[in-house]
UniProtKB/TrEMBL annotation, chains A, B, C, D:
SUPFAM superfamilies: Homeodomain-like, Tetracyclin repressor-like, C-terminal domain. Residues 11-71 form the HTH tetR-type domain. InterPro entries: Homeodomain-like_sf (IPR009057), HTH-type_Tx_Regulator (IPR050624), HTH_TetR (IPR001647), KstR2_TetR_C (IPR041490), Tet_transcr_reg_TetR-rel_C_sf (IPR036271). It comes from the Bacteria. Residues 34-53 bind DNA. It comes from Thermincola ferriacetica. Pfam families: TetR_C_24 (PF17932), TetR_N (PF00440). The keyword DNA-binding applies. This is Transcriptional regulator, TetR family. Keywords: DNA-binding. Gene3D superfamilies: Tetracycline Repressor, domain 2.
DNA sequence: GATGAATGAGATTTCATTCAT
DNA sequence: AATGAATGAAATCTCATTCAT
């Protein structure tokens, strides 16, 4: 957690720091991100950074919570909690895709974190994050079963892990592929890629995915 | 590619180096892995390492190819290429799971690499790896359609990305979850976890997954 | 350019660093000079050096500019810009000789740099330096022609290169020779050599050189 | 001095080693030249190099003597020892220029050595080389005086140092300048530069220089 | 005579963090 | 609250040289 000093900062300074730090952590793995580079770009003293945040990890976790919070808000705003499973899921997907395209930096920070297995310092935090994600999907699936839109004989946990990975990894890479990018962070370097994806295409992707999800692969 | 020097080494020395290096790269992101630590543990001179490998990247890529090669061999040995899609997929899954449990280190090195987006030095290599994986699944799906076991109206590419992510991420995390581990590399630290998973359980997981894959979620 | 940090240093510390660094760069070619040695002798942390200078090259170029600046100042102070060519040249020579004897370290750093052809990193800088030196002599010669003290049929550029090399190399080595030294940097190791050269001798050398320059070798 | 083993080598192998080593030492200062690079390019074992030469210095000095010998032979062949000073000097110049243009590698090795003041290991050798050069010019000048083509009141040593520096430095840089190169080793990288200099131009340069030498700058 | 693996010192550089001002 | 200098461990990599085979 940032220290109080950070929140006492004039808003534009605070925003600037956040923005530059996001930039840094979005573009490389946690261990390669550099505080030195951040303070240099932000034009603040290195010592100041340590008045604002305990250490590198503290900063990163703050950014991560920020990003996760924004993403959650974005999704919650688009998803009708009362809707049946498939509708809600569709809405989640759409919101997720839009968020990633609109906020590539936030989205990359989250993804970077989730990939940071083996980063001792982040271990617990990542575990917690995964648990929350899983919980989100578990609830959806459970409700789907209760409402009768999902078969009763489905293992909730397994299904949750599966749909979660489909959204966070499979879908992301698929979109990147059809956009012509190669690695996941190409969106950061070539923001114009995102504009190639129009509403219709997004709708097409979602429909295809829903079809898979509903009926599986078998004829 | 390692230099000839490396291959001229007595086998036990070569094995030892590989083993220790795998250990290093399995447990942390590429940028945090340390050649210094490796040579210290291996009891060889720093200069020697550079007689064997061009540089850090060269070493990592060698290990990665080694791991990928072993995994591929393992899977190919278990999968009947003539079988229909769902059978072949089942066999792939089983082989994949077994490989991960039997060779957690190799499996972690592969996973680490695939997560190393943003690692400039590895970019091209990772992209290539992803392409190959996708190709593998694409062919399976395509053949499945031709043989009539998969619906004709399914987008091959999308489906491939989805099943790929399910296997590489969703399934892995699910298994780890039921094993009681928390993060993906816990298997490295507590190898005894792997033994908790018996044949029956594995069969159960596979059956559940196949059900999802065949019929989707809908009743 | 050194970072601001360096200029904020207490003067004696700054001087000490400069002095030790000059020592290091005066005595060996650029590529053999060692930052590690400098910090060890200066009793500062290696990291500190990188707070002061961007890198080795930055440090060297700073020292070089320092030395060149001091030499230029020294010479300008002794040379009457309005004087006719031969007077001005005589004054230049005298100032140059005195500078080299009084500041052997600075003088060696400059000479080392000018010899550092093939030092990729310094290439552009050296070229620039040579251009400036040439320009200095070209102007002198050109003015000499305009004032009628130099023959009109003389190729300015060629003459400039020639007098430049005579001063920077021929004269230096001659003086060293009569002082009993052997290589150009012997003055650094045996500073007492310099004292052997008295005013009269210097005057003699200059007169001889001027004679050559004015009338050439022919009777 | 190379060991006997080196001279026992088949000629083409010996030539190849020499050629590649010349390449290495021509392009960078002694301390940056690398034996590792040489053996790699020559395709021989590192140990073999140490069967042929005592160490790096031994190799370099051999190359240097080789280059110096060739240059001397080249010059002696073109210079009539009985001719009067100015004729002999003219011939020397012409031969020197031609040698440098025809054998840029050899010429660069020599120049690199002469610039390697401060290179502890080479100190004595360089001193010796300079002495020999000086001796060469001293004799010329002395003979010139005896023959009456040079004024009697000229200091032989000073004049020798001056003409020596004019030829080895001033002239070289002048030629490079009009060829469009910037640093002395540009001739190595762009050999086509040399071809721009035709016979007539060379003659022009020599005439100009002789004029300076004979009559000095004064009208 | 040839080989080439082994060595280890040493080079430059980066980094997160501390702390006196 | 802000500063920014100081630190030193650690990283990657290069090199000349040795020596057993």
């Amino acid at each position: 957690m940032p220290r109080q000093t950070f929140f006492n900062l004039p808003e534009d300074k605070r925003k600037k720091i956040i923005d530059i730090a996001l930039d840094e952590f979005a573009g490389r793995p946690y261990s390669k991100a550099s505080l030195s580079r951040i303070v240099a770009r932000a034009g603040i003293a290195k010592g100041s950074m340590y008045q604002y945040f305990e250490d590198k990890k503290d900063l990163f976790m703050y950014l991560l919570e920020l990003a996760a919070g924004e993403k959650l808000a974005y999704i919650e705003q688009e998803v009708d909690p009362g809707a049946d499973f498939f509708t809600a899921f569709e809405q989640s997907m759409l919101a997720g895709i839009r968020f990633n395209l609109d906020h590539p930096k936030l989205s990359r920070v989250i993804a970077n974190a989730m990939d940071s297995t083996g980063e001792e310092a982040l271990h617990d935090f990542i575990v917690k994050g995964r648990k929350m994600t899983l919980e989100y999907f578990s609830q959806m699936v459970r409700r789907g079963q209760e409402q009768g839109s999902i078969r009763k004989d489905i293992d909730i946990k397994l299904a949750s892990y599966m749909v979660s990975s489909m959204l966070s990894q499979g879908l992301t890479e698929y979109i990147l592929d059809i956009l012509g990018g190669s690695a996941v962070d190409d969106l950061l370097k070539k923001p114009e890629l995102a504009e190639r994806l129009n509403e219709e295409q997004i709708k097409g992707i979602i429909d295809e995915t829903m079809k898979l999800l509903r009926n599986g692969l078998q004829p």
